[in-house]
Amino acid sequence: MSADLTYVVAGLSLLLAVVLPDLLSRWPLSPAIVLVGVGLLLGLTPLPDGLPLDPQSNGAVIEHVTEVTVLVALMGVGLALDRPLHLLRRSTYGGWSATWRLLVIAMPIGIAAVALLGWAAGLAPAAAVLLGAVLAPTDPVLASDVQVAGPSTGEHEVEQDDVRFALTSEAGLNDGLAFPFVYLAILLATQGSISGWWAEWLGWYLVGKVVVGVLVGIGVGWLLARVAFRSRRDSLRVAERGESLLAVAALVTAYGLGDVAGGYGFLSVFACAMTFRSAERSHDYHAAMHQVVERLERLLTLFILLVLGIALTRGLLGSLDWRGVGIGLALLLVVRPGSALLALSARRRPDHEVGGLDRRERWATAFFGVRGVGSIYYLAYAAGQAPELGQDWLWSTVAFTVVASVLLHGVLAKPLMDAAQRPG
């Protein structure tokens, strides 16, 4: 991308990030919809000729930009969740009941269903598994309309509603938990028959890297919280000064150490944010940190959506066919709602308890499986590890699914969430 175009697109994204939320508050449109639309229009002009839109030639750029965006979103999600979770206190698990069900039941069913659809459409096993994996995580980036608004602190502490909490916490965790299945696809593509590596995948990629990532994140979050809130040195108690850029330092540190230790860095960032949030829970510093992260996330997200819209009119959907359209719509309208509804309904938690969902809330939670930037990142990452997985058809199908999700969920977010939360 030329320097001039970088400034133009980034400046337009920043301007829209400032004005769109209030401008669209009375309309059934999300900023994401508008940004994709603006990008589509820009794609019809000569302006974007220097943009790196081709995923085959610019996979590394796409991978790193989307990676940073997801990391920022995960930090924001972890800081926004008010409901405590302590690994050694089983009493805190119940409030997360819907989250566990969506992760342990709905997510594997969704991966398997999309992989089977891809295989039936003629994909090789590795590509089919990858399609299921990259479309599995719900997105912490594009789902702001159905997620918690932010941490409630000080005099403004309120209980976050169960639908938004379930969708927010699910998005915070499943972006990291999709990684083992992305690696499963990479191993299938690069090493062939599973007989030689299935034990390694099961023990290390599915379990070991998850545990390492979470433990590193907990350690970083605990240490930074202890310094920020309780250090004996005044200069290190940054919470008293309200120095909210610590949020950015924390996410970079947690991600880097998580990767160095061999764990999943996405989980490290989320665990770090959750652990930091558990310290001095009512302190206003959490809200200040979240505000900084939220603004950075908004800018990065709108930048990506603008470029995505441009790419759509510059050939990104060139390989899309009825198979890709069918799989994308099946995921959004059948696979996600069906698997999530099954997970949330079987031996469910009573809806009068924290973490329990009534019938309307279960339907709303099941429907809003927003797909977005995380799917683009995972596909770019896998293509970088195994180039044969970066085929044009996969890029077109994933791009179509993301845009369809932006339109579908963006238009329906406000009316359906209002209906789910209406008394009676």
Automatic annotation (TrEMBL):
It is a multi-pass membrane protein. GO terms for molecular function: antiporter activity. It is found in: Cell membrane. Its main location: membrane. Signal peptide: none annotated. The chain crosses the membrane at residues 6-24, 31-48, 60-81, 102-135, 177-199, 206-225, 245-276, 296-316, 322-343, 363-381, 393-412. The keyword Membrane applies. GO terms for biological process: proton transmembrane transport. Keywords: Antiport, Ion transport, Membrane, Transmembrane, Transmembrane helix, Transport. InterPro entries: Cation/H_exchanger_TM. GO terms for cellular component: plasma membrane. This is Cation:proton antiporter.
